[in-house]
Amino acid sequence: MAFGTSDRRTRRVLEDGSTRQSLAEDCRDAALSFMSGVAVGWDKLDLALWLTGPYARATRHAVHGERVAAVSEAENIPDETIEALVTRVRGQLLASIEKAALEFGALDFAAEVVERGFVRKVVDADGRDAWIPVDGARMRLRDRLRSLFTADYLNAPYTYAELFVCHRCEAVVFDDRAKQLGICGSHRISGVVPRDDRAHDDETDDEA
Ligand SMILES: [Zn+2]
Q1: pLDDT tens track for 163-191
Q2: What is the pTM for the complete model shown?
Q3: What is the DSSP letter of 129?
Q4: Residue 174: alpha-carbon gap to chain centroid
Q5: Quick one: which of 138, 132, 165 has its CA closest to 59?
Q6: Which parts of the chain register pLDDT below 70?
Q7: Measured in angstroms, how far is the CA atom of residue 55 from the centroid of ligand 1?
Q8: How far is the CA of 1 from the centre of ligand 1 (A)?
Q9: What residues sit around ligand 1, an ion, with C-beta below 5 angstroms?
C-alpha cells in the first residue's frame, strides 16, 4: 500500500505545533503563489524569492541534509530559460489541475509523488497522520510543485471537491461558487454584478 509504508511509531512527529490544516495551508499558499505569479510573468529573481520564501516555508519540515539551496540551481540558468521553464511547469500543472477539477478533485499525479518520495508521512501536533513536501537535491521544479499540491491534497482532500480553474483568468481557486458560475471571485462583487455597479468594478475587460 503506497500511502502507508512507514511504521507509525518510527514516524517523525512535528514539534512546532504544525497540524494537517496548517501544513495544507502552507503548501497551498506556496503552490498558488507560483501559479498566479508565473501567470503575470516571472524572471530569475521572482523564482529565487519564491524558493527562499513560500517554498522554503512549506518545505521547512523536511529533514536537514535533504534540504538544498535551491536558489544556486537557478543561478546557473540564463534568464530566458528560467522564464520558459516556469511557464512550462505552470502549464503542466494547470493541465493536471483542470483535469482534477472535472474529476471531483482527484489529482492524477498524487500516487506517483507519494511513490517517488516527494512527500513524506509524519505525525502532526494533534497526533494525526499528515504529509509534508520534500525539498530534495535533484528534484525538478515540476516535481517541487507537484509535491506541494500533493501534500495539500493528502492533508485536506475534501477541499479538492471545490477545486476550480477560472475560465476567464486561469486562476486556481478552491471555491464552490466559482465552480458553479464558471468564473472566479475577481470578476464579480457578490455573485451577480448589477449594471449600475459595473463602472466601479476593477475588471475592465469589457472596455478594453
Ligand atoms: Zn478569474
Answers
A1: 999 999 999 999 999 999 989 999 976 55
A2: 0.83
A3: E
A4: 11
A5: 132
A6: 1-9, 63-76, 189-208
A7: 24
A8: 38
A9: 166, 168-169, 171, 184
